[in-house]
Fold this protein.
Amino acid sequence: MILIISRSGKVWRNVISVCVSLSHPWETVTKAAMQKYPNPMNPSVFGVDVLDRNVDRQGRLHSKRLLSTEWGLPSIVRSIIGNVRTCMYIQEHSVVDPKEKTFELQSTNITFTNMVSVDERLVYRPHPEDPEKTMLTQEAIISVKGVSLSSYLEGLMASTISSNAGKGREAMEWVIRRLNTEIEELAITARGTLRTPMAAAVTEK
């Protein structure tokens, strides 16, 4: 993980960069990433609404979603910054390019923007040396703007994002296991459906 902290005037900036390898093919990871929420590893995300979804002329799938999250600030911090709301809304735009095998996701908060902005970018690509693995590059820029406890908020958000990055990978594994279970159950159901008429035909003979 790369961490860069800077200050310009009344704005604190924190840049986080992470690159990890996931032990699943790109297609599997992409499906799981698009169905990651809700999950038990990150219950703070309690709502996902699809605002738009379309395929462009290049065959790329564009999706715009609104995420509803619970921003767990301590009560003393809320009293100092004069804000009692704890629900943060995040706007997310993702592009899946099946030809180039890239899945890029960008998100930014659209509430609390007078205090803090979090711009995050994730890119999933096949591992260059192992097609059964996927490389994830994650970058986040946190900007805290001229409020009391700026350095505290900047540190809190950085810690939250770093923690959520690990939870996000755990969530991906959870979703992949769930998808695999659903596929196995469908296969069992399909085999049972096929066997029933075949058994009936044998009985009739």
